[in-house]
Structure formats: structure tokens, C-alpha cells
């Protein structure tokens, strides 16, 4: 199992956690476990407030659960700890797309592991069993090979030419210098930059460079 340590900020303020479960008994059990942890505060109907992390317990990734996760992604915008009884390959990628950063099979979801997953999620990390992590990496590799590469795209959504332009921009080259280095016209370089900013809804050149840096392509 892979986990990242929590930050000092998480240790100072309790992590506000929203719990969703398929039945009242499970909800009460998970809420009680988390509520007993000093640095975790369970958000309930009686004590409403913004959440830092959502915990979703489910049997499997049904349409209803997927819809719930998408609503959480759009409204709460918080990382999700998913505790399913079972999850298959297709469901794993869907879960990741819905801000799920930790997956704990229910058979292994002890109190300490749920606590660790919540604190890790709040700190910006993730928790995946080795088998699921390997499957996730294989899916991304398959996506790159079968979907993105044939269209000249990277997992970041950038083309090789766009990546090259942004890399040179990050090195401080201006439009004319990039054009000379890449054997393009200045107009072509500007079109590349314009295409990136428009397609990815980026504000300007520095924003585009920052996006490429965060994506790990430059």
C-alpha cells in the first residue's frame, strides 16, 4: 500500500470529513470510528460545514455511486476515499476521474487504515493497494498507446510540438527565438501558443508554462 504523510497544517486543524454509506448501520460505524480520532471532525446534518475529504462506502461502483462521486467532484471539490466491497478495472479509472484518491477494499478497511486514508487524502496524497496501483498504471499506458499517441497527444493533452514550444518558453526564449530553434515561422509559434491556451482554458503564456510544469512534460 502506498501513502504519503500528512502535512503540518492537517495536524493543526481537524480534517472535516463527510461520510456516505449504503445503510445507516455502516454510516454510523464509519462515522463513529472517524469521530473518535482527535484530528478528524465528521461533518453531519447536525453539524454542517465545508468538508475537506469525503468517504464513500459502497458494495460496488453502480450508476448511483458514480453519479454521487461526480456530484461531489462538481460541488464539494474535495478528495474522496472510496471503500468498496469490489471494484473492477473499468470502475477504477472512473473512480480516479471522480477525484477518488484512495481506495480501501472493505475487507481491509480497519479503523486505522480508514483514518490513515482520510489524513493522507487531506494532505494531498493517495492510497492504493499495490494490485490496484499496477492496474491503474496499465490503464494509463493503454490509454496513451491506443487513444492519445495515434492522435499525437500526451496524457497532459499537449501535442509534441506544443510541449517543445512550452519547454523553450520556460527557458526564457521569445517568439522569434523559438521560431528559429524549431524552424517555424513566428506566426506558427503564436498559433501553437494560442491553440494551447484556448483548448485548455489557460489565461496566458506563463499559465501555459505552469500547466506544462505541473503535468510533468517539461
TrEMBL record:
InterPro entries: Sig_transdc_resp-reg_C-effctor, Tscrpt_reg_LuxR_C. Gene3D superfamilies: 3.40.50.2300. It comes from Streptomyces ziwulingensis. This is Response regulator transcription factor. Keywords: DNA-binding, Transcription, Transcription regulation. Signal peptide: none annotated. The lineage of its organism: Bacteria, Bacillati, Actinomycetota, Actinomycetes, Kitasatosporales. Pfam families: GerE. PROSITE patterns: HTH_LUXR_2. It comes from the Bacteria. Residues 151-216 form the HTH luxR-type domain.
